[in-house]
């Protein structure tokens, strides 16, 4: 049986080999060129060429020693708002457990953070600052919530305001807690975004906040984005879904102090 498998691997055409590498990326998130070369019985040079081609096609980002899957979250906000609604609600229920009365909460745009807005406790004297019109709509007319909507330009397909106006307003805030939207998250590469302006605003949110929390759907874990936002060491609380394997949760806890798993 082993010999048959080896013969099959030796007989792979370049396109088949590249498809297998892409499958490994989608399964594991991160791949190493040396390990792939050994598995496919080819040279690391050949594997790196395949990884370069996959990166050119937008499937992955080249990192030291291998590649990281690009996050699948690069979709219009209107699409993301209707995806995995129940999963995001469970993440939100876990995330709001760290909110304390009378805090200033900075709530970034994003569909999971809209779910957090809906789950925030009432009559707790919270001031919620957000650049998300969708989140603002979930907060209005609820008792004990003071809401501040950050202004600015809302780009086509974006979930919230961006640009110089939004950036200036965020820089003037001193929040107790920030729920940051993350397009991609990897223990080594950190938090990333797809848009340069969005990444700049997110970095300002990190600087403006005493504590940083991220609630993350599973498909964004072990993936890359185009623009760096923050290292994992900046994240005080990470909320993940119940389907994340135990070994992966352990690897996250090795770099983040508080990793909390939402209820299934």
From TrEMBL:
Pfam families per record: DeoRC (PF00455), HTH_DeoR (PF08220)
Coiled coil: none
UniProt keyword annotations, A-Z: DNA-binding, Repressor, Transcription, Transcription regulation
Keyword Flavoprotein annotated: no
PROSITE patterns, alphabetized: HTH_DEOR_2 (PS51000)
GO molecular function: DNA binding; DNA-binding transcription factor activity
Domain HTH deoR-type: 14-69
Signal sequence, start to end: none
PANTHER family per record: GLYCEROL-3-PHOSPHATE REGULON REPRESSOR, HTH-TYPE TRANSCRIPTIONAL REGULATOR SRLR-RELATED
Protein name (record): DeoR/GlpR family DNA-binding transcription regulator
């Amino acid at each position: 049986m082993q010999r048959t498998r080896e013969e099959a691997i030796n007989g792979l055409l370049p396109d088949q080999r590249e498809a297998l590498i892409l499958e490994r990326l989608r399964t594991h998130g991160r791949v190493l060129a040396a390990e792939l070369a050994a598995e496919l019985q080819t040279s690391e040079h050949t594997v790196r060429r395949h990884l370069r081609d996959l990166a050119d096609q937008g499937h992955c980002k080249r990192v030291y020693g291998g590649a990281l899957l690009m996050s699948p979250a690069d979709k219009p906000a209107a699409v993301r708002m209707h995806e995995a609604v129940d999963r995001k609600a469970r993440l939100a229920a876990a995330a709001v457990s760290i909110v304390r009365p009378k805090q200033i909460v900075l709530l970034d745009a994003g569909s999971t953070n809209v779910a957090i807005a809906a789950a925030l406790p009432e009559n707790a004297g919270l001031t919620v600052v957000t650049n998300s019109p969708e989140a603002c709509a979930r907060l209005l007319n609820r008792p004990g919530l003071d809401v501040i909507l950050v202004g600015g330009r809302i780009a086509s397909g974006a979930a919230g305001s961006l640009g110089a106006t939004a950036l200036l307003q965020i820089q003037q805030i001193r929040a107790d807690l920030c729920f940051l939207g993350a397009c991609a998250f990897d223990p080594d590469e950190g938090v990333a975004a797809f848009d340069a302006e969005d990444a700049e605003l997110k970095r300002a949110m990190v600087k403006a906040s005493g504590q940083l929390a991220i609630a993350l759907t599973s498909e964004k874990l072990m993936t890359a984005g185009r623009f760096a936002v923050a290292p994992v060491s900046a994240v005080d609380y990470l909320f993940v879904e119940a389907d994340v394997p135990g070994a992966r949760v352990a690897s996250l806890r090795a770099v983040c102090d508080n990793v909390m798993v939402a209820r299934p």
